[in-house]
Amino acid sequence: MKVLVTGGAGYIGSVTSKALEEAGHTPVVLDSLLSGPRQFVGGRAFYEGDIADRALLRRIVDEHPDLDATIHMAARIVVPESVELPYEYYRDNVAKSLELFDELVALGKPRLLFSSTASLYALTPEFEVTEDDPVEPTSPYARTKRMMEMVLEDMAVATDLRAIILRYFNPIGTDPDLETGYHLKDATHVVPLLAQTALGLRDVFTITGTDLPTRDGTGIRDYIHAWDLARAHVRAVEEFDAVIAAEEKPYSYINLGAGDGVTVRELVAAVERVVGKPVPVREAPPRPGDAVGAFANADKAARLLGWRTEHTLDEAIASALAWGEKRKAVLGYE
Predict the structure, then answer these.
(1) Which of 8, 121, 257, 326 could form a disulfide with 169 if both were Cys (CB 3.0 to 4.6 A apart)?
(2) What domains are there in the chain, each with its CATH number?
(3) Measuring CA to CA, which residue among 98, 74, 93, 82 is closest to residue 151?
(4) Is 141 one of the annotated active-site residues of the chain?
């Protein structure tokens, strides 16, 4: 199969592109390089440009008429930044995606996998969430994702568009060969920050939020190895029509997570276990837009995709640390 990957020069986009190749498929990358580094494209078919550029989309389909599906990963993703720059987030994540979706339908390419987020789930006492649980996004970033989910529902009902909406939990680590990985120069996500601290690139790791309603007061997340997440996309592409048929409606929501909750303090302890030494930490209030968190019930992914995670938390952390040691050689910065 041939798959258009928007945001394919980004972290998860590049890892997923490699997983597609290893499964015998051909990724075609569309990326503006706003944040994704050109190095992550590798030797793949690549188009530098905007997802809302309809002329470019027509050119891509003209040059690759055998495209079977689109994986839409291109988005702004930094929660605190979304609080500071809501216009840019709604413009890029919502308005531009609308143009992409409409043009794909017009071009007769209606199969779409959409990268959504678990950060939009409402807080539940057990923290475990299924796809049917209530949503209550707490940041502009999460709200952009929920808006696009609703757009996809409506467009799928009204047009030929068919959508599998993948709600990511928290990816860490990278591909087995450490070719790409988390690339933002100023890290904001917890595991890259922890990895940089464990490697001595930062003086201290800050635990943001220590009086939350969890077992130790810190946020709870579901950490999934990036390679497992990439494999899930491969399965979703391969099983696309079967998933839609099983749903008996033109769209599907699927959680992608390891299926267990890990608090920030527990994550710090896991990193210390992997590196074999203490990681200096300090405490601070929650950041604007931060969610308390949740972890996945991933039974639907197992049932519809035949997929579950294969890597442990320690393996994912080891992968993130190994990439942290290598990324300066790849990207030119630590």
Answers:
(1) 257
(2) 2-172+223-256 (3.40.50.720)
(3) 98
(4) yes
